[in-house]
């Protein structure tokens, strides 16, 4: 039995995945929502600007985007051969064996759960700040975090169809805010936009390692397309729209980062 056959058999034993439940545009919005561009701008990119290379983050973002484009080329080819919701386990197991794939799955599961815990805490903390500031209501942060966790669990239980709708609305709202912010910056600081952000002096001066980490984290989530390999309504949807999601993310990040 080949590695691909083993993976397929394992998937069948674990349960049935609904097919043809996501349109290709819906998948793009789900992937972009997973990357959370607004959150990345408020956290990863802001920290990179403050403690990394400064305005050179714009150039580094495009550089990292280009490197990920090369990675995406191989990822696309592999996604045409391996269809499995296990994603990390399936891809790594297909190439390096089930043992290595299982190890990668454990690492990914731990990393994602730790990240989810951090996001829940951050959601509760910043929601409390917003509610107490604008509504005068102060509640413990963990209550807001628990609500966010409950909503996420409910969406996961109901199914990917409703989750697609919710993430589409969230993605559109994020794009609207980013566009509004970019226009505001252009009006108030038109001299803030400069091609100097692409110069080597700006891109490779300062804490480059920290900046690269934040740049890569800003794109995290686009790899999730592999999870939905059997859900698109059109064959090849994953391989066709993964580059689209990555390009959109890099474009939005660069749009709202003027030179300094």
From TrEMBL:
Q: Which residues cross the membrane?
A: 27-51, 57-78, 99-121, 141-162, 169-188, 208-229
Record keywords, A-Z: Membrane, Transmembrane, Transmembrane helix
User: Carries keyword Membrane?
Assistant: yes
UniProt keyword Transmembrane, yes or no: yes
In Swiss-Prot or TrEMBL terms, this protein is called Amino acid transporter
- Biological source species: Rhodococcus wratislaviensis NBRC 100605
